[in-house]
Design goal:
The chain is mainly beta. The protein folds into 2 domains: 1-116, no CATH class; 118-346, no CATH class. It contains 4 helices and 14 strands.
Length: 346
């Protein structure tokens, strides 16, 4: 591990030195996060589980000039005492083939992007490369920071901010496994339009329109399905109450997910043969008593995500809401129980 990180530092320094030699401002930072997890349930037939894991990050940031910034973030994650070569984990029983070694290749780029402010002379900022994408308080797009690995995407983002409003376009290359010699497609792209306005009902109003184009050829599928997510989120403070209300609707095709989820929906042979119609509604209201010792807060919280019921299955429809790239822990609990995109646990 020691040798690997020395190499990582050297690579980061070399890349920065070669590409931003004129930079006046270069800074380094990092993170070391060890954690113990303890899982237990009420069954006498199962055993408790104790897991140690660690996340280590090394950051290098260079301000090339007033309009150009380069950010590199290397990361290594691993679970103690687990033999999983290449994933930052190892077993050391001592002697023979089980003896620990330091040849595990467990360091890679978690983020690596370039930011250009005032791109092409316009009031638009461009961020291109591997990056964390957080929109709408993590509801549909978040970095899942609770998990040691976290969530990043290879993406291009354009952002315009002026006055009390912000507009944005994001392209995410979610999956690209095309083979030149094959007629099958294995792509998934996400196009995302966002907008927000400050000063609405004591807070901010955010709108989102996402288009997912999924050409994944798994399970024999060779068609392309396209589906959309549209909705809004309002968050603010009124009459001493903190509140958040949001609603999202999904529509379009769902043939592939309907076939693989085994929930009784039978496609006719392609992704477009199953219609997607799902929605999510969330409401949160809280009150903080600042004049009371400890400033306690009382919060009422309600989330409702639609699922695929018997009527949907009989009609060949898909009604399960796709949580997309959300930071699920923030809304559905730290137990990882309702985090499946396909809806198999909802």
């Amino acid at each position: 591990m020691k040798k690997i990180y020395l190499l990582a530092i050297a690579v980061a320094a070399l890349m920065l030195a070669s590409t931003v030699a004129q930079a006046a401002d270069i800074s380094f930072s990092g993170q070391f996060r060890p954690r113990m997890n303890f899982d237990s349930d009420a069954s006498d037939k199962t055993t408790n589980t104790k897991i140690f894991d660690t996340r280590v990050r090394l950051n290098a940031k260079a301000n090339v000039n007033a309009n150009t910034e380069v950010f590199l973030q290397m990361q290594s994650t691993g679970q103690w005492g687990v033999d999983n070569a290449g994933a930052g984990t190892r077993v050391s029983d001592g002697g023979g083939g089980a003896q620990v070694n330091d040849a595990v290749n467990d360091v890679g780029f978690h983020q690596a992007y370039l930011t250009l402010k005032g791109f092409a002379g316009q009031a638009v900022d461009l961020k291109i490369g591997r990056q964390e994408i957080v929109i709408g308080g993590h509801r549909l797009f978040g970095h899942t920071g609770w998990l040691q690995g976290g969530q990043t995407s290879d993406a291009i983002r354009l952002t315009h901010a002026a006055g009390n409003h912000t507009l944005g376009y994001t392209y995410i290359a979610a999956d690209n496994s095309d083979a030149v010699a094959s007629t099958a497609r294995a792509n998934e792209d996400v196009h995302l339009l966002t907008g927000s306005t400050q000063g609405v009902m004591g807070g901010a109003l955010e709108g989102i329109l996402a288009m997912t184009v999924d050409g994944n050829a798994g399970d024999g599928w060779n068609d392309e399905e396209t589906w959309f997510t549209v909705g809004a989120r309002q968050k603010g403070k009124l009459s001493g109450l903190d509140y958040r209300v949001e609603f999202y609707h999904q529509f379009g095709d769902a043939g592939q997910i309907a076939a693989t989820a085994a929930m009784g929906v039978t496609p006719l042979g392609d992704g477009e043969s199953v219609d997607r119609s799902a929605q999510m509604f969330g409401l949160r209201i809280g009150k903080t008593f600042k004049d009371t010792k400890g400033s306690p807060t009382i919060t009422l919280w309600f989330d409702s995500l639609s699922g695929t019921d018997d009527d949907d299955a009989a009609g060949g429809d898909w009604g399960t809401f796709d949580v997309m790239y959300d930071t699920g822990h923030k809304f559905y609990g730290f137990m990882d129980f309702f985090l499946n995109r396909a809806g198999s646990t909802t």
